[in-house]
Amino acid sequence: MLNQYFGHYLLNKGILNNVQLREVLDAERSVKVKLGLLAVNAGVMTAAQVEDIHNLQRTRDQRFGDLAVAMGFLTSVQVDQLVASQQEGHLSIMQAITDKNYMTLGAVETALRDFREEYGITTSDAETEAETEIIKKLVDFSSAADKADLLYNYVGLIKRNAVRFLDDPSFTFIQNSTGKAAQPKWFVSQQIIGDITLSAGFLMEESVLLEIAARFYGEKLTRVDELALDSVGEFLNVNNGVFCSSLSDRGLMTDLQPPVVIKQDGEIDKAVNYRVNTTTSFGDFEIILSLA
């Protein structure tokens, strides 16, 4: 998942432009095969078993390989072999950049070294730990004090679920808004109540809402109707359900209110603690978070 961060590092440094970055991430995405498909191709799992894992990931924030081992579908050795058969993340994005002649291989290697240095990433870091440190440099929750780590975990979960359920590995966070002219948007939100009270939601344009809904539902949707609204609401609900499950592991009891989707023609009419800008392969949207 570090590929998109490296890509946006190149964008922020002015080494690649927006069009080039989109093309690189699209090209890189096409060469990275998911672990489940690799397992089926290798004959060590059935398609039904892979589907079971994917369904389980709707309730648990765990990697495919960890769940496959826990359910007895794979051994740790088999998972290691499958992971080894995937292209290393930095190699695939480097290949995509050089294939398009946007940078020389030497220039990419130098940029990758600078990126790892700037963000404190070493080859011994676990990917999730490195990802958390990068998020902390892009999103500032320091004013949340003792709840800051929960918020970092929350947005990190959204990122992972964008990959799992929306098939969008290019999802990442951006430090500045796009500066687009204000226009009517859709706001999907949900209340988490209990030991932690958090209002969480997405503020997005209609085209982004339709794409999220379509990707989560699994079929093309062309208009904002009840199905589209239900689908985007369910994506938020699944994400928040997994988040609440992780809170229970910490001894925090929470419950979810039903998600609400409304047309937002003006400013959000309630106190907002944090607005987190994100970018995806199909458009940008904001994560809106309010702590009670």
In short:
It is built from 12 helices and 7 strands. The protein has helices at 2-12, 18-31, 35-41, 47-56, 64-70, 76-85, 89-99, 105-119, 127-138, 148-166, 206-217, 226-248, and strands spanning 172-174, 185-194, 198-204, 254-256, 260-264, 274-280, 283-291.
* Beta-strand content estimate: 15-25%
The tally of beta strands, per DSSP, is: 7
The CA-CA distance between the termini, in Å, is 31 Å
How many strands, which pairing sense, and closed or not: the largest β-sheet? Answer: 7 strands, antiparallel
The average pLDDT is 84
Description:
- This protein has 292 residues and is of the alpha+beta class.
- The chain is 52% helix and 15% strand.
- The chain contains 12 helices and 7 strands.
- It has helices spanning 2-12, 18-31, 35-41, 47-56, 64-70, 76-85, 89-99, 105-119, 127-138, 148-166, 206-217, 226-248, and strands at residues 172-174, 185-194, 198-204, 254-256, 260-264, 274-280, 283-291.
- Strands 1, 2, 3, 4, 5, 6 and 7 form a 7-stranded antiparallel sheet that branches.
- The mean pLDDT is 84.
